[in-house]
Amino acid sequence: MLSKNMPRVVEIRDIQQDNYRTKTFVLDTWVEGVPGQYAMLWLPRFDEKPFSLVDCDPVTFMITAVGPFTRLMHELKVGDRVWLRGPFGQGYRVPPSQRRLALVGGGYGVAPCIGWRARRCGAEQLDIIVGARTANDLLYLERFNGLDVGDASLTVTVATEDGSQGIAGRVTDALRPMLEAQRIDGIYACGPHAMLNALDDLGSQYKVPTQLSWEAYMRCGMGICGSCEHDGKVLCMEGPVLAGRG
Ligand SMILES: Cc1cc2nc3c(=O)[nH]c(=O)nc-3n(C[C@H](O)[C@H](O)[C@H](O)COP(=O)(O)OP(=O)(O)OC[C@H]3O[C@@H](n4cnc5c(N)ncnc54)[C@H](O)[C@@H]3O)c2cc1C
Ligand code: FES
After folding, report:
1. CA nearest 53: which of 81, 17, 21, 90?
2. Any idea where the domains of the chain sit in the sequence?
3. DSSP letter string over 21-35?
4. Could you say which of 3.40.50.150, 3.40.50.80, 3.30.70.3280, 3.40.1160.10 is the CATH number of the domain covering 100-215?
């Protein structure tokens, strides 16, 4: 197998439309990785960008059209080819002492959360919280509700800022009562920085460990260019998942 640092060309096997600006791309290849890791997608003569692994086998990405690269990705069709490097970075690591986990995803931050298998991480309870601005922005609800968690228990809670679906408010509004009820051993999250900072505060307040996946501008993905520095950490290698203060 090629080094993970070497781009390799792969075909797009399937494309699904998730919402008005998000599509899931299934590639005709596999990698060995864990939830929270990311890979680089390269469109030659254009650009290369990082995306969380939704799945490793087959490699799957959920891509929201926010700018030039992601809009070009959305124009691709099944059978077109992209270049892939990875997987890179540190994913989520669940210590055996944590059996009751909260997975929190905001916007396209739900992508790394869907890769969880309760059986593999030893969890007996998964509380998933999916947040978005409006109901139209929600992602992967059907997939979360259908997640194979074996003997574990599963809840899926929705929070929208405009109240158009689920709890009216933010993911922290959904999580706080669970922390109050002492039903959570660990918080695992991905989403916008403001959301991660608020979850870090909550974890610290309730003394519940947090693992947070931070976004940064990534160019090389291998610790060379320095573009991904965050709080003194080289996120492409030491992150994107970092332990919080909780
Ligand atoms: C580890 C990691 C995992 C990611 N996973 C996903 C994913 O699963 N799905 C997905 O759709 N996107 C993901 N992203 C984000 C994606 O790589 C960027 O949005 C990418 O820059 C989009 O390229 P673009 O040319 O389309 O838009 P750009 O022109 O690069 O960006 C469009 C807008 O988004 C803002 N922006 C872009 N990237 C970032 C960033 N990293 N941090 C803060 N603001 C930013 C820019 O300021 C700009 O306003 C991930 C990023 C990282 C670092
Ligand atoms: S992306 Fe280049 S150092 Fe992290």
Report:
1. 90
2. 8-88, 100-215
3. TEEEEEES------T
4. 3.40.50.80
Which residue do the tokens 């965050």 mark?
A: 230
Q: Which residues, in sequence order, are CB contacts of 201 under 8 Å at separation 6+?
A: none
Sign of the CA dihedral 100, 106, 109, 111? positive
Q: Which helix (H) or strand (E) holds 38?
A: strand 38-43
The CATH H-level (homologous superfamily) assignment of domain 8-88 is Translation factors (2.40.30.10)
40 lines ligand 2 (CB under 6 A): no
Contact 94, 102 (CB under 8 A): no
Q: Note the pLDDT tens digit of each residue in 222-246.
A: 899 999 998 889 999 999 999 998 7
At 23, list the tokens: 């599509």
- Ligand 2 neighbourhood includes 154 CB (under 6 angstroms): no
Is 28 exposed, middle or buried (CB count within 10 Å of its CB: 0-12, 13-18, 19+)? middle
Residue 236 in contact with ligand 1 by CB distance below 6 A: no
Q: Which residues of the chain have pLDDT under 70?
A: 1-2, 115, 117-119
pLDDT at position 119 is 65
